[in-house]
Design goal:
The structure is a homodimer of 272-residue chains.
Chain A lengths: L2 E9 L16 H12 L7 E2 L8 E11 L5 H11 L4 E8 L10 E11 L13 E2 L8 H8 L4 E4 L14 E12 L2 E8 L6 H13 L8 H7 L14 E8 L25
Parallel strand pairs in A: 3-10, 5-6
Antiparallel strand pairs in A: 1-3, 1-4, 2-3, 5-9, 5-10, 7-8, 8-9
Helix pairs in contact in A: 1-2, 3-4
Amino acid sequence: MSHPYFLRVAYLGTAFHGWQIQTSARSVQGELARALRKLDPEAPLPQGTGRTDAGVHARAQGVLVVLRRVWEPYRLLAALNAHLPMDARIMNAQPAPEGFWPRQHAVAKRYRYRIQEGPADDPFEVDRCWHVHRADPLDRTAMEAAAQALVGTHDFSSFRHQECAARSPIRTIHQVRLEPETGGFSLVFEGDRFLMHQVRIMTGTLVEVGKGRRPPEELPRLLAARQRSQAGITAPPAGLWLDEVWYQARWGLSAASPWGEPVPTGPDSPLA
Amino acid sequence: MSHPYFLRVAYLGTAFHGWQIQTSARSVQGELARALRKLDPEAPLPQGTGRTDAGVHARAQGVLVVLRRVWEPYRLLAALNAHLPMDARIMNAQPAPEGFWPRQHAVAKRYRYRIQEGPADDPFEVDRCWHVHRADPLDRTAMEAAAQALVGTHDFSSFRHQECAARSPIRTIHQVRLEPETGGFSLVFEGDRFLMHQVRIMTGTLVEVGKGRRPPEELPRLLAARQRSQAGITAPPAGLWLDEVWYQARWGLSAASPWGEPVPTGPDSPLA
């Protein structure tokens, strides 16, 4: 028999070479697989909702694991945490319905990009934010105005890494908002799925707007150009957090998506 | 000429063997001295408001440094930060009046002890809190009730390390309060000065009350016993934060103390 469980996994990305398992580098998927196989040596590889880059953090990576025996969810959580390093933790575990896949059945995600300002880096935020050193604070109003051009369904070719393997550059961003924080603010992006480095390139470009180096009105032109070279720098990974993932409501594994469940189309559709 | 500056220093205590300079171990005072002497090889040792233990954090360690030339405060901050490791940062710098001493002229301090609960440690809070693993949450009402017995001027012999070098065990606690936080809460202690391990022993004892192992009514008896063995365990250093220090208003270096400026008496008085 195979018994699937759905996990909510949090990790401090600093000492990981990202989510995806690799032969030599330390990865979250690799550490999870190692812990899982202490409980069941034949367990298949844990499946996540998607990759995160080296240095990127997660509060809510969704992970499916499959074991050969039934586990009481709290005991599974405690047993896996006992075998995991302290920078990756199972925060929640529950039985998953047969047929559920975290990547294919995710309908929306929230990423948070944390920016801190001021003359000195906060020693408690090193590796957890992008500290932008400037005499003047970033122009938050201009950044919010510029961000609105990204909302909607667009070709994001200008905002993806040149090695991005997604077949379609079309993605939908539901909302971008700026949330004040002590010492700075977050840019919060909610969308259906994201391309490789998309949030970091959007953030790097918006920070250039915040510094006054690009006018907010330039964003529609950048999108239309469909050229990576037109957009701004790729913001560093340390500021990026995978904050939330919503799944199709029929699986009963998350709150309902605030953005409904539009069916993605095109070559990258999970249904294709 | 000697030019004194007053610094507000923040540090993540995890990789430091405490504040005080030592011959072989890494300390905050030692790292500060090293950075300072890049600017002025003859600068005297930086003076703090007091010691913190290995693993204890600070947001507001007050530090006096003396240089032979005048520095624009922001340039001094930036120059010192350029020579400091990322886990210790100068957050603020200002000229200090002649005759000011951070330890002697501090009139009150606030320590925060951060406690997290729940089935899994938050990977972002490891080394920054005490995670108390229990099925039931701690009884916060009982802890707050017990804490009130500590408020006032008492002989805290039961709540100090056996190697504490202070000549008098008499200290004044102005307030203890419980502040809710995501995933747990903080115990906030404001007082005139604190004995060695005092906050950690008070916290360890209050957590035993929160677990139902001691009744809150026991606290007055513990104080009266004046024996370390009567009180609870010493809570781990990772949860402790030096949050704020207030100085005599006449120096103009901090907000006025919310607790006034009572003059401490007895053998540990800075005026003795």
